[in-house]
């Protein structure tokens, strides 16, 4: 799949902008704070209905306006597909092929993206919430039902925590009912994460081995607060631990185990990657990103769109070359923000370069 065109109205610093893209490499070129990342963010938002930079939709609307509109024309194997998101004070409206979508899971998955941004370099050493977000975004695109299970899990979790905080005397029988509901949705979330991490490890290890000049192997561990050995044991183990921790949860007034406490660990040649060199960690992230592309393609049968937000300046020459080689080999539509074309030693044939300045975007002639 590839996005043929996108149109913005009142989005960030763009009052009105439209661009037609190449199915290969598209470069947003310009100085800092001109709107390069805003345009790339709009593509990400059109895919996932969320920004990678803010949780507030209000920040996405031009400061002088009350509404914003992001629309794009997606080219898929079976034809063209228009997508649109309207933002306002009243909320958002998502449309697929001009039809409103009632549920988020009905919209997400139509257009899949893989984002590589400087903050991704914190995936190894950053907070567990970053790694859970990484899992949720990827799995949500590959399996929309995952988003439904996760949403229902979070709803019951909120109910359970609220009850623990407000009840004068906790009814153990009612808590057991909430435990059953939490185990139903939570076990499905964990099962899907377990399968995804196994597939991700297989793909990422192959890529990391090549990037490291065949010197390093990469392993990924699923660190769950629920102690289980087999995937089939997850629900019963989760339920058992919830029951076992009743006294602790009542005292602390929160839920101590479940997918909301999940984490993942990375190991390079058996060593925890949080102790690896910065170069090794960057190779690891690069391997992960290229593995995301392979997994999405494997599961959905369609190439995702790759978004590179100012990452070339974060990588050394070797890793820049490996990234560009991988992009060309995967044959994915790619969007790159940069202040310079220096790292593009050989300009690919299938490329469009866009000059971005003060909220205006113009295609440059080759």
Task: Explain the overall architecture.
- The protein has 366 residues and is α/β, with parallel strands linked by helices.
- The chain folds into two domains: 1-112 and 303-366, Rossmann fold (3-Layer(aba) Sandwich), CATH 3.40.50; 124-301, Glutathione S-transferase Yfyf (Class Pi), Chain A, domain 2.
- The chain is 41% helix and 24% strand.
- The protein has nine helices and 15 strands.
- The strands form three sheets. Strands 2-1-4-5-6-7 form a six-stranded antiparallel β-sheet, covered by helices on one side. Strands 8-12-13-3-14-15 form a six-stranded mixed β-sheet, sandwiched between helices.
- A hairpin with a 2-residue loop joins strand 4 (68-76) and strand 5.
- Helix 3 crosses helix 4 (144-166), helix 4 crosses helix 5 (172-211) and helix 5 (172-211) packs across helix 6 (234-244).
- The longest helix is centred in the middle third of the chain and has 40 residues, at 172-211.
- It is globular and about 70 Å long.
- The model has no long low-confidence stretch (mean pLDDT 93).
- It comes from Streptococcus loxodontisalivarius.
- Keywords: ATP-binding, Cytoplasm, DNA damage, DNA repair, DNA replication, DNA-binding, Nucleotide-binding, SOS response.
- Its main location: cytoplasm.
- This is DNA replication and repair protein RecF.
- ATP binds at residues 30-37.
């Amino acid at each position: 799949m590839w996005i043929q065109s996108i149109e913005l109205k009142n989005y960030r610093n763009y009052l009105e902008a439209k661009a037609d893209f190449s199915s290969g490499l598209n470069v947003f070129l310009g100085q800092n704070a001109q709107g390069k990342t805003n345009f790339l963010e709009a593509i990400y938002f059109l895919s996932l209905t969320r920004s990678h930079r803010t949780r507030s939709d209000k920040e996405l609307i031009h400061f002088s306006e009350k509404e914003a509109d992001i629309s794009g024309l997606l080219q898929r194997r079976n034809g063209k597909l228009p997508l649109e998101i309207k933002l306002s004070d009243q909320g958002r409206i998502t449309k697929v092929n001009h039809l409103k979508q009632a549920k988020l899971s009905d919209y997400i998955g139509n257009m899949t993206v893989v984002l590589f941004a400087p903050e991704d370099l914190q995936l190894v050493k950053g907070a567990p919430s970053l790694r859970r977000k990484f899992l949720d975004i990827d799995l949500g695109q590959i399996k929309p039902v995952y988003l439904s299970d996760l949403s229902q899990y979070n709803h019951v979790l909120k109910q359970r925590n609220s009850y623990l905080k407000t009840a004068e005397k906790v009814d153990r029988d009612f808590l057991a009912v909430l435990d059953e509901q939490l185990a139903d949705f939570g076990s499905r979330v964990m099962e899907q994460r377990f399968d995804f991490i196994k597939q991700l490890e297989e793909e990422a290890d192959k890529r990391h081995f090549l990037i490291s000049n065949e010197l390093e192997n990469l392993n990924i561990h699923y660190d769950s607060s629920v102690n289980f050995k087999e995937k089939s044991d997850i629900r019963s183990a989760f339920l058992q631990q919830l029951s076992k921790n009743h006294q602790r949860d009542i005292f602390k007034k929160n839920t101590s185990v479940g997918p909301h406490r999940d984490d993942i660990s990375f190991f390079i040649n058996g060593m925890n990657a949080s102790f690896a060199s910065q170069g090794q960690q960057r190779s690891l992230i690069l391997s992960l990103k290229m593995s995301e592309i392979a997994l999405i393609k494997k599961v959905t049968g369609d190439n995702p769109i790759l978004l590179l937000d100012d990452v070339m300046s974060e990588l050394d020459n070797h890793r820049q070359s490996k990234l560009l080689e991988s992009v060309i080999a995967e044959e994915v539509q790619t969007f790159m923000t940069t202040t310079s074309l220096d790292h593009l030693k050989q300009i690919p044939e299938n490329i469009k370069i866009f000059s971005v300045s003060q909220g205006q975007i113009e295609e440059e002639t080759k």
